[in-house]
Amino acid sequence: MAHEEDPLEHERASWKPSPGLAVAVPDPVQNSQLPPHRERVTDQDPAAMKRAVRTVYTLFYLSVAASIWAVAAYMIFPIEDGQVTSIRHNNLFIGLGIALALLAIGIGAIHWSKAIMSDKEYIEPRHATRGRDTTREAAVKAFSDANEDSGFGRRAMIRNSLFAALVASVIPGITLFRGLAPQSSEASPHAGDPVYLLSHTMWKKGMRLAHDPSGVPIKASDVTLGSAFHVIPEDLAKVAHGEGYLEEKAKAIVLLMRLPVDQLHPEPGHEDWGFDGIVAYSKVCTHVGCPVALYEQQTHHLLCPCHQSQFDVSHGARVIFGPAARALPQLPIEVDDEGYIVAQSDFHEPVGPSFWERH
């Protein structure tokens, strides 16, 4: 089939500009340069500069006062009585103090940068990024120039007030977090001691292991190979769900499993802490305290769903992956005359997350 030639294509290919025809060629983009520098009021008037400096350090000291007020409000408006009005006043005045402290730091820092720090424009030429002998000197000069431009080294009132405001701003948070810790009293002399609290749970010699939450005791014959039971102390199921119940339950929760005896490799001295392949370990992860409740039947691994720490039940629940720092505490168990699984004692080490005082 013959190809029909496009007449326009031939015309476009043969076109050339006429000698007298001027063809417009766009000029390259010109550098617009920096606009003329306009001095600020504080650059022109020393009195205005002094006012700006006073404003900045006044804001920083206002932040200090607001942080102190937040701590005072925590004490002036206690919430121990449980009244809604007390809680409302506590939250309101502490929140106002913290908000004002942080707001004053922010406004002061912005005003400092806009009215006091150097306002000159600089152009930094590009250069090779490879290291060279003058790098250290250039870095020192850069810090020196920055200090000179900001006035950080010269303006002692601003510098000291900023340090004071930053230090004071964390005090309300420390105060509030400190109030979350249980306080010791004559009735509870160990309430403020985490080592004691996490070293003692409801488990004691002869206490039966029971299903969570029904409280039905568990017999050894109920635990088949590959099974896993969520367990609490039998006595806990009989306790009224009042104040302190959840705390006691959180420390005492246990996971009960049965493995083939030939696949168990207990730690030295723990050989008699199980019964016929049945072992019990704390469910509280030793990383940050999440419940370790996912059991892989084939690998005998326990998985914490929060941060993926894994523990090998066949080797004393030691850590094999993840951020947890130590193995899960093991609950020594045995079987009583009626065939029920009972605890030999309490845990022999603190349960829960690792902490520096736990020695």
UniProtKB/TrEMBL annotation:
Cellular component annotations (GO), alphabetically ordered: plasma membrane
Pfam family name, one: Rieske
Bilayer topology term: Multi-pass membrane protein
Keyword Hydrolase assigned: no
Sequence segments annotated as region (Disordered): 1-46
UniProt entry tagged with the keyword Cell inner membrane: no
Cofactor(s) listed in the protein's UniProt record: [2Fe-2S] cluster
TM helices/strands, residue ranges: 59-77, 92-112, 162-181
Gene3D superfamilies: Rieske [2Fe-2S] iron-sulphur domain
GO molecular function annotations of the record: 2 iron, 2 sulfur cluster binding; metal ion binding; monooxygenase activity; oxidoreductase activity, acting on paired donors, with incorporation or reduction of molecular oxygen
PROSITE patterns per UniProt: RIESKE
UniProt domain Rieske: residue ranges: 251-342
Main location: membrane
Location of this chain's protein in the cell: Cell membrane
Comp. bias intervals (Basic and acidic residues): 1-14
Top-level lineage group: Bacteria
Keywords: 2Fe-2S, Cell membrane, Disulfide bond, Electron transport, Iron, Iron-sulfur, Membrane, Metal-binding, Oxidoreductase, Respiratory chain, Transmembrane, Transmembrane helix, Transport
Function: Iron-sulfur subunit of the cytochrome bc1 complex, an essential component of the respiratory electron transport chain required for ATP synthesis. The bc1 complex catalyzes the oxidation of menaquinol and the reduction of cytochrome c in the respiratory chain. The bc1 complex operates through a Q-cycle mechanism that couples electron transfer to generation of the proton gradient that drives ATP synthesis.
Family in the record: Belongs to the Rieske iron-sulfur protein family.
Protein name: Cytochrome bc1 complex Rieske iron-sulfur subunit
Lineage: Bacteria, Bacillati, Actinomycetota, Actinomycetes, Micrococcales
